[in-house]
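Encode chain A's predicted structure.
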Amino acid sequence: MAEMATGNMDDALDILQDAMLGFVAKYSCKPVEECQPLFYRVLQSRITDWHRRRTVRSRWRVWFGGTGDEGDGREDMLSNIADPNALPPDAMLLHRTEGEAIRDALRKLPLRQQQAFLLRAWEGLDTARTAFAMGCSEGSVKTHYSRAIHTLRELLEEHRP
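Encoded structure for chain A:
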C-alpha cells in the first residue's frame, strides 16, 4: 500500500517501518482483534504525512532550482545475474505490462479512493474495519470504494480478456 501511494520502494519501506514502530509504541497493549485496523490507521496516517511533506519539499526544491533526485551513480551488480527460475521473457513482459497498468491506474485514483480500495480489496478488511483504519464513516468507505472500482474498470478496460 505504501509503495502504491509513494511510487518508490525506499520511501514505502521507510513509511512502513515508521508505522510499525509507532504502532508498537502506542498500541502494543490492545487486543489482537483490534490490531489490524489500528495498524492500517497508523499506516494511512504516515502515508498522508508523507504526501504533505513531499508537497512542501517540492515547493522548496522548485524555489532553489533542484530536483533532489540525484543518485550516487553506482550500479547494483546482483541485478545482472540471471535467475534460473524466472519466467520466459514473453510472460515476464506480459506480467510487467499488466502490473504497470494496474499500478498506474491505482496511482491515478484520489488518495482516499486508493486507500479504500487497497484496504478492502487487497488487505481484505471489512467495511467497519476499513472505516476505522481510514478514520471515516462506513458510508464514506462504501462511496470511495465504489468510485475506485468504477474508475479502475474504466482505466483498465483495454486489459480485460
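Residues 2-65+101-159 form a domain with the Butyryl-CoA Dehydrogenase, subunit A; domain 3 fold (CATH 1.20.140.160).
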